[in-house]
Amino acid sequence: MRYFFGVIDNATGTATPEEMHRIDNFNARLVREDRLVIAGGLCDPTDAFLIDARSTGEHQVGLHHDGSEYISGFWILRCDQHDEAVALAREASRACGRKIEVRPFLGG
To answer: How many CB atoms lie within 10 A of CB 108?
Structure first.
């Protein structure tokens, strides 16, 4: 089953050198265990835009983000069981020093 792990932060690119070292080690382990599908950091929400093309009206609506925290990075991982995803999310949170939102993909 695949899981989305969203890194929750209130700024972008704030990882300390120590956090980056822990993240790199965590990522290397995920690669060795063939769990990592993709991982990456995301731009600040001020660089984001929202598209709504459901009607013939305006298509670029503006920003969707309206809070102080947002997803600043992510992992997509393969986990055999929910408990494995929970354990890896704990490790991810410790590695990056931030909260992790975990969401399973529909249909695995």
So the answer is: 8
